[in-house]
Amino acid sequence: GGEPVERKGRAQFEVHGDLNKCICVAVGEDMTDNQVRVVLTWAEFPHSVVLCVKTPEGKIWKPPHDDKGDELGCTLLPNAELECVHAEGGYGPISVLLKKMLPGRYHIFAKCNPYKMAKGDVGWAQSNAQLTLFGGEQEALEWSGPTHFTHPKEGEAPWWDICFLDVDAKGCVKVRSFNELVEDEPGNRLTTVICKDINGKPVQGVKVLCQADTTAGSQETDETDEEGKLQVLLALAQYTVKVEKQGYINTAVRLMVDLEPSCCEVVVPMVRPEVFSQGQDLLCVLSWGGTDIAELHVETPGRLLKRPVGFEHEFASYDIPMTTPMQVMMGVWGRGYWALSPLSSHLSDGTPLRGR
């Protein structure tokens, strides 16, 4: 009964062959500054669809109507809200309002359970599904990238990995499009944590804690196996990896779990307290994942010591009078130099140093 209100929407679809000859067009409501609305729509089929939006504060989502599990999903966060969920059947829409764009990464993806029909299953490829991001026109967001995505036209995988929204400290939004169907839930990577002592030998039974910097990431705790390894599925995020084992010094390293680099592993050096015989001892250890070769240089007031690339058991140094004894430690995925005080020529257990 009120005055007509002008709203805008957008849809892109095909009508040919066996595709559903129907479409649901999302129409955006008014929003305040710095807000973004994520809207998913589709055709009459499939009926079981869920939209997931991972934010720096957590994940907004709701299981599909025919999900018989115990998961209730999450419909409200401090700065995100599940506004609208489709009733039983098709079309949608499902709408998530991002009330304030926080610095960090947003990941948008969806899942459908194909609708079974006599002529074949109807999944994403036949769904005429679209995802629209309303709010990208705001000048303050300095939006870079697309605001509209249509369903992939090929494939039968249940997950539709749509895009990242990367928001910098100034609130500028950069969209990274994927728009592909995948078999497993997007946003996770199998990560390997390797614990080795200063001689390059694996350390078994190390308690490992992977703590994400944001609440959106998971916290995983487990122990390394006989190869000193622990494999864990982690959400894409930055982590602090803390290790603990009796007889070793507690250590923490940083780990980035992302789509790149292709190598998703970290090596944690395990050091016993008795390595340090005096208060002035210093241990420098360089560790990395993968099979690449690295070179560590340590320069002291009297000598520059380095390990030549390609030589596992040799190291070179400039011929300068030595003021600090040093020992080089070799091992796969780890190189280190051990600088001890000039007064010490033996380890605490009586082993002589190999100072060069």
Care to count the β-strands? 28
Q: Would you identify the CATH architecture of the largest domain?
A: Sandwich
Helix residue percentage: under 10%
CATH topology of the largest domain: Lipoxygenase-1
Number of helices: 0
Portion of residues in beta strands equals 35-45%
- Give the class-level CATH name of the largest domain: Mainly Beta
Shape assignment: elongated
**What's the N-to-C terminus distance?**
91 Å
Structural class: mainly beta
Main sheet?
6 strands, antiparallel
Strand order of the largest sheet: 6-7-8-3-12-13
Number of domains: 3
Radius of gyration: 28 Å
Low-confidence stretches: 308-356
Strand and helix order? EEEEEEEEEEEEEEEEEEEEEEEEEEEE
Average pLDDT over all residues: 75
InterPro entries: CarboxyPept-like_regulatory
Protein name: Carboxypeptidase regulatory-like domain-containing protein
Task: Please describe the structure with a list of short key phrases separated by commas or semicolons.
disordered C terminus; 3 domains; 356 residues; mainly beta; Immunoglobulin-like; six-stranded antiparallel β-sheet; Lipoxygenase-1
